[in-house]
Amino acid sequence: MPRGDLLPRVLVAPGAVDDARGLVRFGTLDGLLVPVGPVVGEPERVGPAVVHGAGPGGLEHGSAPGVGLLTAVDRLRWCATRGLRAVVAVRGTVHGPREPAVLAGRLCRGLEGDAVAAVEVDLREADDQHALRVLARLREETPRDLLLLARLSALQPDLVGVARGAVAGGAGGVVVCGSVPLDEGRWWSGPSTGAVSRAGVRRLASAAREQRWPVVPLVAAGGVHDLASARSALAAGATSVQLGTALWADPTLLWTIAHDLERLPEPPEENP
């Protein structure tokens, strides 16, 4: 997917489903971007993210386990043979064979590389200079016109600065994640985090209007659990939403929200 092309209104978060191929039991993937990853240099345990507990408005869960290059290639090959496009999520160290740029570059240059529509890199713990370096390396290793997405946390102290660094490095879109970090590798996600992601989107949208960072599409991730919350995210300034833990309870929500949002000509404006 070249930079500048419109993103689908609805995306699936990396790790939201153990294997996206299982989604075909609930509906067609035509017109959607299939999530692949998070891809890591050293494969971790297989299976979904561990749920540690639930409470009002959400649940506590572990980070999504990473998959290795061979698994990612197999899933990209599955997409390619069906004419589907994928978003490859990468996670890893800054330098060496496990860095995100090397992982993404290997997948894009493979025989299945044509199935890669975009690459998303997790920068939720990055500062502006780290974001700049990671995206610049990704831009070096991937096709020049490939869409790169920077996954940031709405709670990052210098959210605008990190977003500016990511775009300067080559990001063509920013995913604003509302998940709340609880401990090493543990997150709180669910409907209660919708206000967090929307606040981050509004912060970046306001900064873009003030020309404090370049305007790129914003994806609201976190707390989108029904049609109302999806529309609220678009009203806050997002161009797309990303579904995560909501799909654990109801995978068909992906098509319900996608069908409704695709009928909207433009995101509605938020009331002051």
Summarize the structure.
One of its GO terms (molecular function) is dihydroorotate dehydrogenase (fumarate) activity. With 272 residues, the chain is an alpha/beta fold.
Description:
InterPro entries: Aldolase_TIM. It comes from Serinicoccus hydrothermalis. The structure is a single chain. The chain is of the alpha/beta class. It has one domain (10-46, 63-262): Aldolase class I (TIM Barrel), CATH 3.20.20. The chain is 32% helix and 22% strand. It is built from eight helices and twelve strands. Strands 1-12-11-8-7-6-5-2 form an eight-stranded parallel sheet. A four-stranded antiparallel sheet has the order 3-4-10-9, with no helix packed on it. Helix 3 (128-141) runs parallel beside helix 4 (159-169). The longest helix has 16 residues, at 194-209. The chain is globular, with a radius of gyration of 17 Å. Residues 267-272 have low confidence and may be disordered.
